[in-house]
């Protein structure tokens, strides 16, 4: 019962924080009625939130309300490990491409993200970064043929790449022919704005490079593989393509 009460209170505190941030005026009595608890309970909740560093303002006098300071929350993002990894790698890609805009404060963000990881997780992130390659910008002809990749395909490709899992894909070649492939996504290659999968094609027993926007369907097989050195894929890559983000 104690654990259930603690869980309920945690959920209530999270809900209170969101509501106080959004509402311009809300009394403690209103909050108590909304959450089905006593005024005393809400008062204790608000006191605990203040102790945790939340800037909760209270208007004195009859009809006064409580609210969360509008500036509270900056720098207090709660990211999952997967979200933090995605953000960190996205920053690394932007830096590697020498993007001049919106990078002024990303170094500090990057350091904070790295500092939040354990040594083991930092090593895993570095391994992921080493598998993301940056090549030359795609030609105008290639850019003109770029297509939007369905979100479900993006998510499947992303998960299989991170988890080192084989993929069953339907792929449309440049000439329009469609085939089924079983691939291992060892590396991702960005030739802005086109992403490519640098993979082992298990059905053809050799390295291949696939344009992500030509993947029509992707299914994870659940079978993991060991990442091969970049040199193994040299026949299908140029020297410029072998440059990693890390």
Automatic annotation (TrEMBL):
PROSITE patterns: WYL. The keyword DNA-binding applies. This is Putative DNA-binding transcriptional regulator YafY. GO terms for molecular function: DNA binding. Keywords: DNA-binding. It comes from Rubricella aquisinus. The keyword DNA-binding applies. The lineage of its organism: Bacteria, Pseudomonadati, Pseudomonadota, Alphaproteobacteria, Rhodobacterales. It comes from the Bacteria. Gene3D superfamilies: Winged helix-like DNA-binding domain superfamily/Winged helix DNA-binding domain. Residues 12-63 form the Helix-turn-helix type domain. Residues 153-219 form the WYL domain.
């Amino acid at each position: 019962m104690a654990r259930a009460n603690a869980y309920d209170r945690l959920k209530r505190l999270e809900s209170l924080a969101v509501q106080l941030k959004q509402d311009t005026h809300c009394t403690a009595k209103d909050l108590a009625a909304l959450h089905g608890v006593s005024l005393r309970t809400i008062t204790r909740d608000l006191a605990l939130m203040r102790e945790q560093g939340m800037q909760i303002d209270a208007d004195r006098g009859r009809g006064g309300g409580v609210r969360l300071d509008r500036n509270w929350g900056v720098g207090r993002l709660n990211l999952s490990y997967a979200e933090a990894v995605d953000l960190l790698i996205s920053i690394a890609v932007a830096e590697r491409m020498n993007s001049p805009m919106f990078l002024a404060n990303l170094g500090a963000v990057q350091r904070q993200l790295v500092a939040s990881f354990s040594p083991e997780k930092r090593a895993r992130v570095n391994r992921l970064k080493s598998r993301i390659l940056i090549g030359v910008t795609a030609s105008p002809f290639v850019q003109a043929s770029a297509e939007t990749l369905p979100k479900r395909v993006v998510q499947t490709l992303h998960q299989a790449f991170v988890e080192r899992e084989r993929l069953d894909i339907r792929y449309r070649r440049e000439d329009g022919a469609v085939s089924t492939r079983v691939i291992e996504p060892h590396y991702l290659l960005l030739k802005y704005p086109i992403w490519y999968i640098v993979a082992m094609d298990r059905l053809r027993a050799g390295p291949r490079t696939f344009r992500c926007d030509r993947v029509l369907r992707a299914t994870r097989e659940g079978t993991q593989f060991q990442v091969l050195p970049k040199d193994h894929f040299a026949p299908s890559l140029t020297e410029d393509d072998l440059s990693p983000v890390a």
